[in-house]
Amino acid sequence: MAMGFRRPAASRTPLPGTDPEVEAAGAPRIGNRALALWLFLLTAAVVLLDALTGDDLPVVPLLVVMPALASVFCTVRQTVCVAVWVTLVVVGSRVPQTGAFWDVAFLIGFAVIASGLGVVACAARIRHATEIARLRSAAVALQRQILRPLPIATRQIRADGIYEPIEEDRLVGGDIYEVVDSPYGTRVIIGDVQGKGLPAIGAGFAALGAFREAAIREPSLASVADMVEDAVARHNAFSAETGETERFVTALLLSFDGDDRVRAVNCGHLPPWLLHDGTASPVPLHLTSVPLGMADLSGEARSAEWFGFPAGASILAFTDGVTEARDATGAFYPLDERIAAWARREPRQVLAALQADLDAFSGGVRRDDVAVLVLSRRQDGGGDPRREAMAEHPGAEGAVGARGRA
């Protein structure tokens, strides 16, 4: 094994049924052979330096800091081995030169206590990291189970997309999306919940549940938005009673009925882009209303508006995780400058190019969720959307079947 550090995830293969994030939290960051080599070299260097300095300046006792250093990078077992080795070296090298009994007892006690503290620190670090990994993995897994896997095909459109939740501590976001095949056409929502963490996910789930129900029942897209508004308001009322912060949701609702126009209700969200004939342009939406959950602050009713959706066109809808991505200098991602170069590509190619370019621009450092949908008219004349979804995601029959009728 080469000497040096290694990624936690690569230390060993997780057992079936285990969480890779939890496994990685307790995995060593340095291999056993590399640790043994470094331990031997440092010990030899300190012992040699101690021999050169003599009794006037004993250096070997300084080895007791090594268990503390090992606790940062090693497992508990590795840290124990380092602690035992250091204790033996320190005691074995100093006892012959120490005469008084209490001097020997103090030396042994000091080495044991210092080494033991390193082991305790290592165990505490791993326990904390494991707890954080479990909480983060549970939140992300819950979010991924609620949001249907992409792509999604309906009678009118096909929705391709990417969804990348940020998985750092306290930064599990609340981006949402859904595509519902209703009696009134295909209804689509993409939104972003204010804030981060589990409360934001709760508000997003409240909005999704209301949308799935209202998309089937309400003939008007504006009425669908009102139903989602009521759900977010009820969620906020409950949050206020429990002492949590109220949330609002920026959302874009679209409705496709098979013709060359699309209905839209924009609730404070970023406008979509239309990709057609090699050009890319933002869709001008003039009836933008306040975000969901803030209707009480505005006396205006939500209204739907129409925009063109010609044959062969695609609609790009996204959350602010795209436009607010930053590079190393702090500059925002210039979507309007980049998207035109991909306007002639197929939806999956557009998504792949956007994802790669976004990662390159930000250096792989994300500060928010990223949700992107590319909506295109189906060219195959229809078919069974549920069968297509299952073909895209073999083994996901339960998830597709539970919501496929929506």
Q: Can you describe this structure?
A:
The structure is a single chain. The chain has 406 residues and is an alpha+beta fold. It has twelve helices and eleven strands. Strands 1-2-11-10-7-8 form a six-stranded antiparallel sheet. A five-stranded antiparallel sheet has the order 3-4-5-6-9, covered by helices on one side. Helix 3 (66-73) runs parallel beside helix 5 and helix 6 runs antiparallel to helix 7 (221-241). The longest helix is centred in the first third of the chain and has 46 residues, at 101-146. 36% of the residues are buried.
Strand-helix topology:
Layout: H1 20-25, H2 32-53, H3 66-73, H4 76-94, H5 101-146, E1 152-153, E2 157-164, E3 175-182, E4 185-193, H6 198-217, H7 221-241, E5 249-256, E6 261-267, E7 273-276, E8 279-282, E9 305-308, E10 314-318, H8 320-323, H9 335-338, H10 347-362, E11 370-377, H11 385-392, H12 397-404
Antiparallel strand pairs: 1-2, 2-11, 3-4, 4-5, 5-6, 6-9, 7-8, 7-10, 10-11
Helix pairs in contact: 2-4, 3-4, 3-5, 4-5, 6-7, 11-12
Give a summary of the structure in a few sentences:
The chain has helices spanning 20-25, 32-53, 66-73, 76-94, 101-146, 198-217, 221-241, 320-323, 335-338, 347-362, 385-392, 397-404; strands at 152-153, 157-164, 175-182, 185-193, 249-256, 261-267, 273-276, 279-282, 305-308, 314-318, 370-377. It is elongated, with a radius of gyration of 29 Å.
